[in-house]
Amino acid sequence: MALASALREKGLTLHGADFATIIVKFHAVTAVAIGLVYYWPKSSLSDAILSLVEKTGCRSVPHFVLAWIVVLWVHLALGYIFAVASTRKGGYNNKNPRGMEIEEGPVLRTKCAAMNMMESMAIYCSVLTIVGAAGSDLGEEANRSIAKWSCLVMIARTLYVGAYIADLDMIRTAMFGLGIFSCFAIS
To answer: Could you report the per-residue pLDDT of 72-87, keeping only the tens digit for each?
Structure first.
């Protein structure tokens, strides 16, 4: 939480900001995310990460990324359940899990990150459906860019989770934008 406090002291937060400040900061974060997505396929970092993913032996990088997101979501959901079971009086209420009152803090942020991960999976799955429908009509260069943007989705979603749980709101917002704009670029 020291990093969150340090960033807030420097003004790198949306927490407690008025509407005008949020608009200015949000637009700046959005512009950076769009710029990163635009330049990503041309970067040597994207080549290196794609190479690492390809070394796993996966047949499809976009589907590997989907599997990564699912595994991350499962671990988040289980982490939330275990945290609630071990810290909340009465444990985890599986009869009404959405109705449980959770105080502020890392447990609540883990729950929210898990819920957002599930929501973002729907967007990424929609993108995979669009790409799948295009099939062999896409060229080699387009397929390589799709694979690189998929890797960026994986990176963004992974960092998003960490930023959410650590309460790093500006980084979380940037990573959310990076993931969403990468999906837009793929489609």
So the answer is: 999 988 888 887 777 7
Interatomic CA distance for residues 85 and 76, integer angstroms = 14
The model's pTM is 0.85
Domains contained in the chain, number: 1
65 CB neighbour count, 10 Å cutoff:
24
Instruction: Domain of residue 136: give its range.
Output: 2-186
Q: What does the alpha-carbon distance between residue 147 and residue 149 come to, in Å, rounded to a whole number?
A: 6
Give the span between the Cα atoms of 37 and 133, in whole angstroms. Answer: 23
CATH number, position 27? 1.20.120.550
Instruction: Give me the amino acid identity at 82.
Output: F
Write out the DSSP string of 44-104: HHHHHHHHHHHTTT-S-HHHHHHHHHHHHHHHHHHHHHHHHHHHSTT---TTSGGG----S
Q: What is the dihedral of CA 151, 156, 158, 161, to 10 degrees?
A: -160
pLDDT digits (tens, 9 = 90+) for 26-56: 899 999 999 999 999 999 999 999 999 999 9
117-122 contacts, C-beta under 8 A, 24 or more apart = 117/69, 117/72, 117/73, 117/76, 117/157, 117/161, 118/73, 120/69, 120/157, 120/176, 120/179, 120/180, 121/66, 121/69, 121/70, 121/73
